[in-house]
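Translate structure to sequence.
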């Protein structure tokens, strides 16, 4: 998954069996507020690659980590130094990333004495609670706190009134200008240098509704050629690669989740993406 500007991304730390559905639903909200490239969920690594190093690279682009804690979060798996959830928390603490515990499913903050020494400081962090009945309001409060940590989202950025000039403000303006140039350069590379000037991504899915466990076929055209494509439904659902004509076909299984209703299936490749709606039905 691509990174946003260093320090302004949000890393979602969770255990799939404990809070996978909540984490995916929250990522949908964060993508809508901050953009897809600023919400990390699951770090993809290559075979043989050092997991801790991969985590540190992803966290290096992040200003905040959301530690999603469900009813079964604190388990014996945390005692294993190789537990990935634990390694992510340890790396975030070592790098000084702001960690915000997020309690879901009626969970309570774990007791410090029940945690390994390396993450025993976690309960000292101010937690945010997300409830099913008050989800929208709870998420608004959480995103408000995130804006204070990682900066405004794409929907909330407002141009300020120009203040009196100063050396500090001049430096800040120069940094922002360079960041904008970097973004323009990335898009230029994707669209022109890489030969993707005609990219016009479109996807279709079949079926468009079903319960958890349903196998969904995703077909896409108009993507950059030979590009990695990430499929997202309540979090990462699969990966594939477009062919030389920018087309692909892949399948994924709808995850087990309590969140029925209409959700977006997103196919993202490089700077290009498209989406189609899928209705998750009750089992």
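Result:
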């Amino acid at each position: 998954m691509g990174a946003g500007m260093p320090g302004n991304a949000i890393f979602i730390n969770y255990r799939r069996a404990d809070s996978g559905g909540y984490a995916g639903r929250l990522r949908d909200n964060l993508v809508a507020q901050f953009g897809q490239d600023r919400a990390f969920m699951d770090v993809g690594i290559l075979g043989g690659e050092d997991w801790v190093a991969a985590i540190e690279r992803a966290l290096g682009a992040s200003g905040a980590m959301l530690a999603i804690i469900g009813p079964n979060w604190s388990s014996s798996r945390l005692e294993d130094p190789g537990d990935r959830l634990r390694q992510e928390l340890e790396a975030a603490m070592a790098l000084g990333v702001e960690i915000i515990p997020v309690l879901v499913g009626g969970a309570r903050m774990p007791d410090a004495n029940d945690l390994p020494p390396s993450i025993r400081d976690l309960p000292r962090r101010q937690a945010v609670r997300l409830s099913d009945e008050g989800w929208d309001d709870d998420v608004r409060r959480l995103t408000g706190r995130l804006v204070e940590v990682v900066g405004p989202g794409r929907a909330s950025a407002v141009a300020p009134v120009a203040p009196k000039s100063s050396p500090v403000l001049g430096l800040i303006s120069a940094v922002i200008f360079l960041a904008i140039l970097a973004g323009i350069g990335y898009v230029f590379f994707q669209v022109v240098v890489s030969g993707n000037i005609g990219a016009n991504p479109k996807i279709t899915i079949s079926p468009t509704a079903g319960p958890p466990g349903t196998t969904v076929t995703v077909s896409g055209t108009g993507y950059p050629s030979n590009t990695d494509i990430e499929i997202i439904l309540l979090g990462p659902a699969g990966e594939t690669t477009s062919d030389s004509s920018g087309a692909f076909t892949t399948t994924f299984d709808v995850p087990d989740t309590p969140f029925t209703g209409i959700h977006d299936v997103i196919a993202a490749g490089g700077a290009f993406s498209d989406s189609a709606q899928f209705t998750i039905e009750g089992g």
